[in-house]
What does this fold into?
Amino acid sequence: MRTLVTGGAGFIGCNLVRALLARGDQVRILDNLSTGQRANVAGLDVELIEGDLRSYERVNAATKGVEVVFHQGALPSVPRSVQDPLTSNAVNVDGTLNVLLASRDRGVRRVVVASSSSVYGNAPGTPRTEQGPIAPLAPYAVSKLAAEQYSLVAHHTHGLETVALRYFNVFGERQDPLSGYAAVIPKFTFMMLDGNRPTIFGNGSASRDFTYIENVVQANLAAAVADGASGRVFNVATGETRTINLLVRELNRLLGTDLEPEYLPPRPGEVSVSHADISAAAEVLGYRRLVTFEAGLERTVKWIAEHRSSGALSP
Ligand SMILES: NC(=O)c1ccc[n+]([C@@H]2O[C@H](COP(=O)([O-])OP(=O)(O)OC[C@H]3O[C@@H](n4cnc5c(N)ncnc54)[C@H](O)[C@@H]3O)[C@@H](O)[C@H]2O)c1
It folds into this structure.
């Protein structure tokens, strides 16, 4: 199959690209390398188009001859969007519209769009179901909700097959630990490997449905072909939660350290409980959790430790 992965040089994108290549796809990537890295796709047999999602022309050229688009490209991070909401909006919303319109114009069969659990915010009711209330708390969450909803509307108005996946706190190999907006697992792992205390915003009782990357890749592959999935949105998670304090305990165990967290005031836009109901994805996509939090964390820590000591990861 000919596939396009937008954001394919990023964390989720490059892991998905590897899975697509492994099954024999011809893979093209569209990425402007803003938060992604060329090193993530170095040596892979892919066509890398360096370009910006905000340009319809670039996106249109990238969708030529493509059957399925996996739209992973975006500016992630809640704090980034609080600091610069205009850019997050332009990339995440206009960029998604460009992907949808170009896909329609080029006759793409299906577009799988990366959405986010952040759309639920602190809305009442947990675990989260796709029909349940949403309450975005940050510009990032609003932009992902708009992207998701535009993709569902494209199904109704343009007859384009679209599936939106609400990822819950994804982690794994090749997630950047060094960005100023790094996610909590790679950030803490890197800090603690250096012997530094992890800094927790709030009291550490916030909980997350941490989802190992292999599970997310599997959901994308299924979403590209599943009958009855088009025009729908699905949670992609594990259905279990871990607190931030527990995460630190697990990291201390895996690293053989005994580092006490440093507690700082909570940040704006942070969610207290993030827990998914994954029954819709199980039923329609045949999705199931392939790798547990503990097994995924062990692999992730090993990867970061190896790449840090080889100098491949340095501040
Ligand atoms: N990592 C998570 O926990 C998580 C959770 C929910 C949703 N998501 C979504 O999953 C997708 C992938 O996230 P990720 O964690 O791999 O982040 P990432 O930053 O590693 O990847 C994003 C990719 O998009 C590219 N990109 C950014 N702006 C672009 C632009 N203007 N034009 C072209 N390319 C651009 C970046 O260079 C990068 O390669 C995003 O849509 C994100 O919103 C991620």
Notes: The chain has a mean pLDDT of 96. Residues 7, 9-13, 31-36, 52-54, 72-76, 91, 95, 114, 116, 144, 167, 169-170, 183 surround nicotinamide-adenine-dinucleotide (CB under 6 Å).
